[in-house]
Design a protein that fits this description.
The structure is a homodimer of 389-residue chains. By secondary structure, the first copy, chain A, is α/β, with parallel strands linked by helices. The first copy, chain A, is 42% helix and 17% strand. Chain A has a single domain, classed as Rossmann fold (3-Layer(aba) Sandwich), CATH 3.40.50. Chain A is globular and about 55 Å long.
Amino acid sequence: MRVLILGVDGYIGWALAQRLATRGLDLYGVDNFFTRRRVKEVGSDSVLPVPSIGRRLQLFRGFYGRGIKFFRGNVADPEFLYSVFKEAKPDVVYHLAEQRSAPYSMIGLKQANETMVTNLVSTINLVYAAKDVNPNVHIIKLGTMGEYGTPNIDITEGFFDIEFRGRKDTLPFPRSAGSWYHWTKVHDSNNLMFANRLWKLKITDVMQGVVYGTEIKEIEKSRLFTRFDIDEVWGTALNRFAAQAVVGLPITPYGKGEQKRGFLSLEDSISCLTIALEKPPKDGEYRVLNQFDQYYSVNYLADTVREVFRELTGKDARIKHVENPRVEAEDHYYNPDHKKLYELGYKPSGELKKDIKKIIEDLLEYEEKCKELKSVIMPRTYWRKSSGL
Amino acid sequence: MRVLILGVDGYIGWALAQRLATRGLDLYGVDNFFTRRRVKEVGSDSVLPVPSIGRRLQLFRGFYGRGIKFFRGNVADPEFLYSVFKEAKPDVVYHLAEQRSAPYSMIGLKQANETMVTNLVSTINLVYAAKDVNPNVHIIKLGTMGEYGTPNIDITEGFFDIEFRGRKDTLPFPRSAGSWYHWTKVHDSNNLMFANRLWKLKITDVMQGVVYGTEIKEIEKSRLFTRFDIDEVWGTALNRFAAQAVVGLPITPYGKGEQKRGFLSLEDSISCLTIALEKPPKDGEYRVLNQFDQYYSVNYLADTVREVFRELTGKDARIKHVENPRVEAEDHYYNPDHKKLYELGYKPSGELKKDIKKIIEDLLEYEEKCKELKSVIMPRTYWRKSSGL
């Protein structure tokens, strides 16, 4: 089976490639190093060492005994993507090649437009390349649980059966995203749903929770680290909390901290993405999977990081609630469904405290690097202050 | 009051400017002549004569005794839009400056991406310019009833009160658009809703039905025609049916022809857009108005055009159902709310048959031009055949 990973140089993509290598699949990868460049622009860097792509690919082939055929380019460039499709002839394509940071999209108008254009055009290009080059390809597209927002009703997986004024229908679950980035994922989901109606493309649209963790099983052995970001733009909640503890900064829940979100470990993210490949939708199906392990409040995560950090190091980390840079409810109902992946065989791999312990241990190993980045960890991108021209 | 019309050279924009001129408002206009150029690209042209913008503006000033301060440029260019905002300092801005053709967006990948980028970026630029230059400006944005699709339940105006699994919330009404173009309007609505949450911008998001007609009251006097398109890409259903009758082509409902859509005359469109200005939303409100007069099936409209054409000319027009180039339900439930504009004072101005008679009369006056365009009237843009690279 031929598998193409768009965004293979990224946090998810690099770990996924290692898992799929152990499955004996033929791997093709694409990246334009957008994340590497943009992370540097905000004065940050990956805490775990990320060699050049050439070196990465060489080490990968050395460890796994099979390589990744790599194409450097931008998925938002249709000519490039078509040429990759024609050469790779993928049976499965993972689309992980979008601008992935909510704060980045909120820096200002330039970043808002860049995120809109990069993300939407890449997905439009992908569905056209699929229908023209291989209409049977299974598209696995990374979306986010953030598409749904925090409605006062249960969240379903993509669609819901609704009764309204005495009539019934099955309709897309209403989305209420919280940043330009999150909205691009909603727009993508809508565009994918429509592409499926047009051409019966086989699509899995993954509504992923917030991912935490430094490693997966394969990385424990290969030591071919995936990137790990801890700054306020590119680092996500739990990963950043662990880094705050390690460098001696306060752990910073935003606002009241009673925001609840679905979370999952990197190990589980990769397992679920592999299940999506191994258990594909029916031909012509557009399938939405809510991909997370459990949901937690931000306060609970902050407390747990503090507790694990104390157990591990004997040191105390402070928790400091800071002004919420985002525009979001800070205390709300939250009950999203996540049955489908369990039905397909997903078994959560770890437990939160053990996973956090592992993150902190890895960060302590790279403590110097964490400290170098101390100045970019605390929030400074305020949604409402997003700059104009 | 200072009013800025983005897309002032278009079908709606040019008529709206004439109505607002009679209201004694200070008018500012923007256009980049995208529609003029793209209409020519498909081998078509406006049936009613449209002079150069310079001549148009001169005649406008001559007739109304007040001019439109005009800026040539692209709303998708943020620097241009900011400079216009700084000079015009609008109290109200109409955003009619998007790519407006569903078939155009479905020609192929290039047009799909062009429509996505042009439309989304123009609206993002607009909300940033508003919040930076005049956060009190009232944004009146043209969307489409097509955002909702044809669900099996009643359609509300933007939001609906929902009960699901025993809990309640008010959520955005789920959208199910039927072309890339229509989806850009959904994405815009979502982005506008979010901009309102960010910066409390005052926004009216107009879900407009299909507009028909050649004139409004002011144009009857001024003879400053707005453009009128009859080709398969840029002409809409009823307008095109009238042209088909006039040039001796069959009237072509797509498929079964039982598709129902909300329609309104150009006169009513302009009245409603003026009401939106005169009865603004509250400060900080994001308001959605469903803007149409009545809903009809395509078959009913075809029959009515045929009937009026016979009464007027004594000649018979054939009706021929053709293969549906679109991807849409051809027989479905349809019951959209449209109460809010009536509550604000909207009174439909005409009756369908009289309006159709007027269109046919105008087209007969320009019969030669209609006949020149005969070869581009019949459908040839097939949704499922949208071309790739």
